[in-house]
Amino acid sequence: MTPAPHRSHTDDLLSFIAASPSPYHVVASAAQRLEKAGFRELRGTDDWTGATGGLFVSRAGALIAWYVPEDAPAHTPFRIVGTHTDSPNLRIKPAPDTGTSGWRQIGVEIYGGVPLNTWLDRDLGISGRLALRGPDGMPRNRLVQIDEPLLRVPQLAIHLDRSVNEGVALDRQRHIAPIWALGDPREGELLRRVAAAAGEDPADVLGWDLMLHDIQPPGYLGVDREFVVASRLDNQVSVHAGVTALVDAATGATQPGFIPVLAAFDHEEVGSGSETGAQSPLLERILSRSVSARGGSDEDWSRALAGAFCVSADMAHAVHPNYSERHDPDHRPLPNGGPTIKVNVNQRYATDSTGIAMFTAAAERAGAPWQPFVSNNAMPCGTSIGPLTAARLGVTTVDVGVPGLSMHSARELCGVRDPGHLAAILTTIMVGD
Question: Residue ranges of the domains in the chain?
Fold first, then answer.
């Protein structure tokens, strides 16, 4: 059986994933853990002057958290872990109530790179946030999570589609409306159901960001339970590891020699081009303001960046046993072999030799293994927030990730040991020992 320390970390990871079906829930779960460790939330309208200790700012599906040791000079360099909170899924349209042929259905849009066949014949719930009428005229937000089998995208029976196993692509626009009842569409029915689950009056709902999620709980797989299987491993494995590392750095016996930072962005799966994405000025503005709040000058800000280091943590591809020809023949990571360092000379990843050296040195100090990863050059390579962060802040950045299978699927797989290895390495980097 898997050694207890790794199982303890992954048990906690599975609890985190189960409580976090949407980016907004990921932020709430992370914030709850940070507050339990003594971090406090700052608002943009607050006075940040002199703020030290554990701090964080949340905005919709993004969270930036950092720890300032007492008496840390304003020019103290940052150690940043960059992650993302969103995952590919099906998102509910503004006018959702639809149907045909005697079925009531829900209109959805495809968010990110979704392997649609993995969403067929799965029991689906609804999660996200409601924007509600507030007492002062300003909207207030309420999270909603319905872990009930409300919806399903039914697959066409093989008797009616003999070509289903011949690689015929699913029509992305016509055949993804989930069913949830019989009868004609009823305008406002979905809104009434979701508002009731949130304990709110449907008349107070002014807007929403709602999505579907697979309600099957996360768990373990394999003869020795050596694998983790769950929705949204990409990229909640990294968010959870980043939160764990930041808390450990802030509460450990040794005070960090740097300013450890967790940056959890939204909308990475669709390009990061939003106010809460890695292309936005969100991280830059918060870090700059944190320097100013401690009496720092422009020179201090430049010095803090010049000595900064960023780890962009996202999922990576383990070699697939049935499609090994799709992988580079000399770079074939396996689960439980440690996090991968992702390299691409065309800068789809931001890794260079300096970043490799810094990460591998930390892995050595943490006693954790690691593996190299390069995509098959004959195929397009994925990317991450690493190049965006490196370009925006001008800091040394390394792209890493836990290797897994079924990336972007409704249910993904990784090794039970690797999430803990990643957290241990990130803690070492944040503390700087």
Answer: 4-87+231-431, 89-214
Superfamily for domain range 4-87+231-431: Zn peptidases (3.40.630.10)
The residues, ordered by sequence, that sit 6+ positions from 155 with a Cβ below 8 Å of its Cβ are 120, 121, 164
Could you give the percent of the chain with pLDDT greater than 90? 86
Residue type, 283: L
Rounded to the nearest 5 degrees, what angle is found at the Cα of 36, between the Cα atoms of 35 and 41?
Answer: 5
Nearest to 36 by CA among 247, 184, 191: 247
Q: Tell me which residue of 407, 13, 3, 2 sits closest to 241, measured CA to CA.
A: 13
Chain centroid to CA 381: how far? 19
- Measure the CA angle with vertex 384, ends 382 and 386; round to 5°: 135
The CATH T-level fold of domain 89-214 is Aminopeptidase i, Domain 2 (2.30.250)
Q: Which pLDDT tens digit goes with each residue over 374-408?
A: 999 888 888 889 889 989 999 999 999 999 999 99
Say what the pLDDT of residue 41 is: 98
CA distance 65 to 290: 11
SS3 64: strand
According to the model, what pLDDT value does residue 379 have?
82
In this structure, the strands spanning 103-111 and 89-100 are antiparallel
Closest to 151 in 3D by CA, of 230, 229, 86, 98: 98
Q: Which residue has the tokens 């249910």?
A: 411
By the 8 A CB rule, do 359 and 368 touch? no
Instruction: Enumerate residues 6+ apart whose C-beta is below 8 A from 127.
Output: 21, 22, 25, 143, 144, 145, 146, 210, 211, 212, 213
List pLDDT tens digits, range 95-140.
Answer: 999 999 999 999 999 999 999 999 999 999 999 999 999 888 788 9
pTM of the predicted structure, to 2 decimals: 0.95
